[in-house]
Amino acid sequence: ARIDLRVCDEVDSTNAEVLRQVAEGCGSKLPISIADCQTAGRGRRGRSWQSPRGENLYLSMGLVFHGGFSVLDGLSLVFGVAVAEALEMLGVTGVGLKWPNDIFLPAGKLGGILVELQGELQEGVVRVVVGIGINVHMLKAGGVDQPWSSLASACPDTEWTRNRVAAAVIGAVADAADDFSNKGFGVFREPWQKRDIYNNRLIQAKDGELKGVGNGIDGSGNYLLVTSDGGVVPIRAGEISLRVA
Ligand code: BTN
Q1: Cβ of 76 less than 6 Å from ligand 1
Q2: I want to staple 43 with a disulfide (CB 3.0 to 4.6 A). Which of 49, 97, 140, 172 is the partner?
Q3: 135 ligand 1 Cβ < 6 A
Q4: Contact 153, 139 (CB under 8 A)
């Protein structure tokens, strides 16, 4: 497919920008948007994403999948694996995934992924916008409510440029999307699980109502908690968030 790459100085949200391009009808082109800063960066679960100018990567890609919404189970985890692999190719070590698709380094969250859908415009055709935010140079952050990290602070001996990170991530996401379309989610299960930061840890969901030991994902990408009575509870993506108990 032909790529339609737009790099701009400032945008509300690169996800919103790609969704607009898709709504206008981008044909067979794959829209990609990169911005130097975002004025209304979006995070998962309705949160905002701090997007200071010049420091980080804000990237969104529009992708097409066939087979209707049901084929999308697990897709957001696929993108997490792709970003982790891209960073590892650039020499980053210790990249972890926090279900469903937060990118972690030992010091804290390095990046996040927001997947948004643009309905079935034609029968069976689903357009997906995957938005990826990666902290590259960020040295201080206002309003970020959890420990975070950046490539420059974690790997100070590397000269980080956003171009290099963007190129690696775009390639990895496109390849992963092809693999997912051709082979399904199954081939991503092991690559996801080996980076699972919650594996074997006591974690909680629903404000502590649900507690269990992290035990990886099932074949659809649901997270599995083993509770104290030995039961296995699958947590569906989008349902609730997990944290350390
Ligand atoms: C999360 O909450 O962890 C997901 C954050 C996703 C942020 C990226 S930055 C590029 C793209 N545009 C947005 O508005 N959000 C995503």
Answers
A1: no
A2: 49
A3: no
A4: yes
- Give the domains, in start order, of the chain with CATH numbers: 3-193 (3.30.930.10), 202-244 (2.30.30)
ipTM: 0.99
pLDDT tens digit sequence for 69-105? 777 778 999 999 999 999 999 999 999 999 999 999 9
Selection from 132, 127, 146, 11 nearest residue 65 by Cα = 127
Query: Which token pair is 46?
Result: 């309705």
Ligand 1 centroid–CA 114 distance in Å is 5
Residue with tokens 């469903």: 100
Task: For residue 147, give both structure tokens.
Answer: 């420990």
Q: Which pTM does this prediction carry? A: 0.95
Q: Which of 158, 111, 168, 118 is nearest to 18 (CA)?
A: 118
